[in-house]
Amino acid sequence: MEVRETNMNHGKKKFWLIIVIVVVLIIPGIFAYIFYGKFYEEEKLYTKKLENGLEVIVYEKHDGPIATLLMVVRAGAQIENSGLDGLAHLHEHVFVYGLRDNSTIPEDLRKKVENVPFNYYGMTSYAYSIYTFTPFLTEDTEKAMILLSDGFLNPWMGKSDQELQSVLSEEKTSVLAEYDRNQSEPYFAMQKAKIRNLWTAYPSIMDVIGDRKEVASATIGELRYIGDKFYIPNNCALIVAGDVNHEEIFELAEKYFWSWEPGKDPFSDYPYKNPPLNRSAIKVVQGDVSQIRITISFIGPGCCEEREDTYPMDILLNILNNPSSRFQKKMVDSGLFTSCHVSYLTLSRDSSIDFVGDTTPKKFRQAHEALLEEIESLGEKGYFTREELKNGKLCITNQEVWEGERSNEYAHTLAFWWSSCGLDYYNSYEKNIKSTSYEDLEEFIDEYIVREPHVSIILISPKDLKSLNLSKGDSL
Hints:
By secondary structure, this protein is α+β, with helices and mostly antiparallel strands.
């Protein structure tokens, strides 16, 4: 009996050990599959470069019969000199107009795309212009490919001057109306002041909306210059995301884009390099605002020449914007600012590190001084902890996991990274974030922020400007 009881106890121990193994190992695995399994098992990224240089990027996500297709052109504000300021955006408008013209599609293919309810749209940013459709059924992917390929292989800019002139006039009206809407916002003048004073040699390469006069006087020849130089396959990427098969997409891309002629790399002799700031400046801008906004901007790293410095910058953002950080406690919890944050956008060559805060007229001087002091304090030993560094990295990697949940949005994410830094940067991003050390972060702060020249822009109402006895100009 004793032996039997001993065996039963041993059996109970084995039973509970199995239960523990199930709870600790197997059940989390089941939940991981339910919540993350699709991301790791069914969502995959594939790339192929055609002979003409066109990069084809396919993101498979099989969670519904929907697909997104877009073409991204490495262009945007970064290609604009002082004579083309705002014309990349205007070119995008004219190009989208041309996508609606199916007259150059061969008759047999035109029948395929008749009565297909595609909605086209375009957008232009600092580093790219994008042309895409609203998401469509997967079964219509080839039809979308036909329409997009016709738009790029037979661009509207190839039409006669007479045909183009009326379209250009119409799209100028649209872009200028967009400019006027932006100009009516008080933060528009603040952004313009920042651009002019931070990037002193070539401000136009950071100004997407551009110059109103240059847009109004734009010529067909100037738009053709943009199209001929930058709208070539070796400066573009075709991105397809959703419930698609990458091999089928590669075949379709080859079928409809193989004859697109490549050209010289338009960035092989890129001339626009802004010099570093040699002194700090303060500018006061008036606007219809109830609070006072303070923006303190530094020139930040670009991923072409300062790639390794972009990783600590992204981590620093997460640390300083965390509500429990020393920065937020001193700036916001103290009551000096109603809100305060740090922003940075990774771009190829030029970017800015912006400390942005909103405060009241009563607390303005104290808040402005405190923000400047806190920025300098970032260089102190022990300003942030190793635990904050760890959590900052974790926030970024968690965001990476969820980014791919919506294929339509993810296609645009891929377009941004491809045009700004290249997919090699994006694919190694998480690895490089994880390998960034505490010392890397300290070195970054010392090189880019502490005791570095910066531009302060103060946005204030005329009434508060007068009551605080401030002047529009270089100093407070």
